[in-house]
Specification:
This protein folds into 2 domains: 184 residues, FAD/NAD(P)-binding domain (3-Layer(bba) Sandwich); 136 residues, FAD/NAD(P)-binding domain. Helix content is 33%, strand content 23%. The protein has 9 helices and 24 strands. The strands form 8 sheets. A 5-stranded parallel beta sheet has the order 5-2-1-9-20, covered by helices on one side. It has a 4-stranded parallel beta sheet with strand order 13-12-11-17. Strand 7 and strand 8 form a beta hairpin. Helix 1 runs parallel beside helix 8. The chain is globular. The chain starts with a strand and ends with a helix. Bound molecules: flavin-adenine dinucleotide. The site of flavin-adenine dinucleotide has 33 residues, from helix 1, strand 2, helix 2, helix 5 and helix 8. One of its GO terms (molecular function) is oxidoreductase activity. Keywords: FAD, Flavoprotein, Oxidoreductase. InterPro entries: FAD/NAD-bd_sf (IPR036188), FAD/NAD-binding_dom (IPR023753), NADH-Q_oxidoreductase (IPR051169).
């Protein structure tokens, strides 16, 4: 069967699919899991804020037209010259291909990092990380060895900071529940530069840093990770830091299969796309979300964020609807709606244009964007079902 094939049901692929579904345009959506993951909230899963199932939305719930088909499979290879996608469940032919396979954590070949550290890039990974920390608490109770209560997160970007913020709240609470002392708990955030959160204004970075320190997080700044061993990070400065839990959030890269298919990629495997989000030099292949390298009118490459991914997917879907009605495509223009970083369930920092918000106000903005996203995905029913659980009402 040919037609539009969308690879990946993350923020980008799903936004494109929903736009096509709304207009009754047929497509096939391929994803490795039968659900969409709220990836921007995975730190909440690692900190056991709510049941992990509330961070996964069944794809079946979202599409209503019989024109769409969902295929749960692993994409293995793209055969662009034959217009075929190879999956672990067979081959799919396409006329138009949308690649929205997201990204995975990049380890940049640092020795031992892939083997000895945890990542936070999928629901499964977040659950594994959470279970590991619970096991470490158990081991501490049995052995009293403080290494089991030491946690090191490498990478002071959004992922690392939100995870640390979550754990700075959850871990002391968990130890108190288990009637364990807090003195041996050590939380460390390693970052290669002088300030964390490179994508927000200097003033907000200072607020976020002060808040983490106030809650007992040690900021290990201007230090680069040189490698990892079982239960230790080695730093370029020669230091060796031991911890029972090592997490790596040092950056992301797109999957290898894009490069292997001959698409034009950068050092992070992102495919160079034009103003219509079409891969340069490839016929009827669009790339959106973390997989895409899009350069805006000011020469800036857009960052790999959920916000960019969703806008790209939505725009591409709308362009394909236009094309089905014989209208020309419109160029993609990104609108920055700001950024909110949560530092646990009770505090956050937000930057909306030139305006800043901190504390509970920032979290209200984050809740607002969660609600908007749910409303967009599934309308008021999905919003109510999910949001009730997140608000614990
Ligand atoms: C902890 C954390 C916090 C974050 N916070 C924010 C935030 O506050 N704001 C923000 O804007 N961004 C945030 N991000 C970044 C954001 O999550 C990503 O930029 C966004 O998910 C990218 O969307 P995407 O559609 O490109 O890819 P994804 O959302 O990763 O979706 C890709 C989809 O493709 C599927 N897939 C991948 N490979 C295959 C394959 N081979 N076969 C079949 N299926 C496959 C995956 O299962 C997935 O469903 C955060 C990320 C993390 C990890």
């Amino acid at each position: 069967m040919s037609g539009i094939v969308i690879l990946g049901a993350g923020y980008a692929g799903l936004a494109a699919a929903l736009e096509l579904d709304r207009h009754g345009i047929p497509f096939t959506l391929v994803n490795r899991e039968p659900y969409h993951t709220f990836k921007t909230l995975l730190h909440e899963v690692a900190g056991a804020r709510h049941d992990p199932h509330t961070y996964a939305l069944s794809l079946k719930e979202l599409f209503h037209h019989p024109t769409s088909e969902i295929v749960i499979a692993e994409v293995k290879r793209l055969h662009l010259s034959d217009k075929l996608v190879e999956t672990d469940h067979g081959k799919l032919a396409y006329d138009t291909l949308i690649v929205a396979l997201g990204s995975r954590t990049a380890t940049f070949g640092l020795p031992g990092v892939a083997e000895h550290t945890f990542r936070l890039d999928s629901l499964r990974a977040a659950m594994e990380l959470h279970h590991h920390v619970e096991r470490e608490i158990e081991r501490y109770q049995q052995t009293a060895n403080p290494i089991h209560l030491r946690v090191l997160v490498a990478g002071g970007g959004l992922t690392g900071v939100e995870l640390m913020g979550e754990w700075a709240d959850w871990l002391p609470k968990r130890l108190r529940e288990r009637r364990l002392p807090l003195e041996d708990l050590r939380l460390g955030l390693i970052h290669a530069h002088a300030e964390i959160l490179p994508d927000v204004d200097h003033e907000l970075r200072a607020v976020a840093q002060a808040k983490l320190v106030e809650r007992g997080v040690e900021l290990i700044l201007n230090e680069r990770v040189a490698g990892a061993e079982p239960q230790a990070y080695r730093l370029a400065s020669g230091k060796r830091l031991e911890a029972g839990t090592l997490v790596w959030t040092g950056g992301v890269e797109a999957p290898d299969l894009l490069k292997e298919a001959g698409l034009p990629v950068d050092a992070r495997n992102r495919v160079d796309v034009n103003e219509f989000l079409m891969a340069r030099g490839a016929d009827q292949v669009y790339v959106v979300g973390d997989c895409a390298r899009f350069t805006d009118a000011h020469g800036h490459v857009l960052p790999p964020t959920g916000q960019v991914a969703e806008q790209m997917g939505h725009h591409l879907g709308a362009n394909l609807v236009r094309s089905a009605h014989g209208r020309p495509p419109l160029p993609f223009v990104y609108h920055d709606h700001g950024m909110v970083a949560s530092l646990g369930p009770r505090y956050g920092v937000a930057e909306i244009g030139r305006h800043h918000a901190t504390g509970a106000t920032a979290l209200v903005l984050k809740d607002g964007s969660k609600m908007k996203y749910l409303m967009h995905l599934g309308g008021p029913v999905t919003l109510l079902k999910r949001y009730r659980q997140w608000l614990e009402i």
